[in-house]
Specification:
The protein is of the alpha/beta class and about 400 residues long. It has helices spanning about 5-10, 20-30, 40-55, 55-60, 90-95, 110-120, 160-165, 170-180, 200-210, 280-295, 315-320, 355-360, 370-380, 385-405; strands spanning about 1-5, 65, 80-85, 100-105, 140-145, 185-190, 215, 220-225, 230, 235-240, 310, 325, 350. The chain starts with a strand and ends with a helix.
């Protein structure tokens, strides 16, 4: 039996500065080499492998392939999906738990692609705007945590191509139009609801309902803290079903009773001094908050107690400044990184990347092998897995119910 890690080392995926489309074709082929989807990837996968290894891929893959990775695909598969704007795989973990197999993934950030590959054994394809929708396999569910961009509302409004071209939502729409999946599941920031005075969301819903002919219930603002992680993170969820599914009602999941606090996801062992703030930075935060307080504003840092729920983790410094914790376990205050001043004696520290991963519902066997800066960015951009899973479970049960009627 061949191991994925052996083949991965042979083609040196880990050493590629930016795992390109060749690596994406190759790893997608490995996941689909015994099903009909392999036709989408086989030719380019062989070219990639044989150009590096100088021996036939077919001979090398005669034995079974063991995916020795943290998250192999489920053995039982009920539906298939594609993972667009995949990030580090929050949607994928949720869908794997619900026994869905991914047929295609796409992510533009090269560091996120690295994290995705070491956990799932698959390099996502790159820039979705450059991918031909005809080259994406047929699938049951399209999943996308897509970025919010400004929509132009000028022009004659002749349909989704006029109204959404130039935005990343257009790429979702053109794939849905071409592949006609049974359903889709989209996630975005809460602000999408009021973006451009509500016109952006109105355009999206018009495109999905009228131009693409999907049943789309009213989108719902969902909060991660209601589904078993201690993070106050609100995001808008949009689901839809192809009219051929004859599904015309959908209820989003109700909040669970699993209320968690920071103590539930706090590092078990003593945390490195590198996560503790310098006294210079601590004073900067205190002064900054006081200046805003003097103006009647509530801006500034926030300290999260062990018995409290964190603020939303987001990309950039504010995500960390609004989630400072007090951890008195530090005994050696000698800095190990270049800082201004000394390590503060009040035990203020940032949350660690692993704590951020837990705030998003990532299990502890999820591998983090990028810099802290990249890890904060990746988890700040991710979806909250438990909320995604709870919603996807209802969506899938709807599809199952329809299939039984058939």
């Amino acid at each position: 039996m061949k191991k994925y890690s052996e083949i991965k080392e042979k083609v040196k995926i880990n050493t590629l500065k930016n795992a390109g489309e060749g690596a994406a074709y190759f790893t997608h082929y490995l996941h689909n080499k015994i099903n009909g989807i392999s036709k989408y990837y086989k030719k380019d996968a062989f070219v990639f492998f044989e150009s590096i290894v100088k021996e036939p891929l077919q001979e090398y893959l005669k034995l079974d392939l063991k995916f020795d990775i943290p998250f192999p695909e489920p053995k039982k598969v009920e539906f298939t999906f594609i993972d667009l704007f995949a990030g580090v795989g929050g949607f994928r973990i949720a869908m794997h738990i619900l026994v869905l197999k991914v047929f295609f993934s796409s992510e533009i950030d090269r560091y996120a692609k690295k994290t995705y590959e070491i956990n799932f054994g698959e390099v996502p394809f790159g820039d979705i705007t450059k991918i031909n929708e005809k080259n994406i396999p047929e699938h049951d569910i399209l999943c996308a945590g897509f970025p919010c961009q400004a929509f132009s509302i000028a022009g004659k409004r002749r349909g989704f191509e006029d109204e959404t071209r130039g935005t990343l939502f257009f790429d979702i729409a053109r794939i849905i139009k071409e592949k006609q999946p049974k359903a889709f599941f989209l996630e975005n920031v809460k602000g999408l609801r009021n973006h451009d005075k509500g016109r952006t969301l109105k355009t999206i819903l018009k495109t999905l309902r009228e131009d693409l002919n999907y049943f789309v219930p009213e989108p719902k603002i969902m909060n991660a803290k209601d589904f078993g992680v201690p993070q106050n993170r609100e995001r808008i969820f949009i689901v839809g079903f192809h009219k051929h599914q004859n599904i015309n009602e959908f209820e989003y999941p109700k909040p669970s009773n699993k209320k968690k606090t920071f103590s539930d996801i706090k590092e078990e062992a003593k945390v490195s001094v590198k996560y503790y703030l310098s006294n210079t930075y601590q004073n900067t935060l205190i002064n900054h908050k006081q200046r805003h307080a003097n103006k009647g504003n509530g801006f500034g840092y926030a300290i999260i107690g062990d018995d409290e729920c964190s603020n939303a983790i987001v990309v950039g410094g504010m995500g960390r400044e609004r989630n400072i914790v007090i951890d008195c376990r530090l005994t050696d205050f000698t800095p190990i990184t270049k800082i201004q001043g000394e390590v503060n004696k009040d035990y203020w520290r940032r949350m660690t990347p692993r704590e951020w991963a837990r705030l998003q519902g990532f299990p502890d066997n999820y591998l983090i092998k990028v810099s802290d800066a990249q890890a904060y960015k990746q988890f700040g951009n991710s979806v909250a897995i438990p909320a995604i899973q709870a919603t996807a479970k209802i969506l899938i049960n709807k599809l199952k119910k329809y299939a039984k009627r058939e």
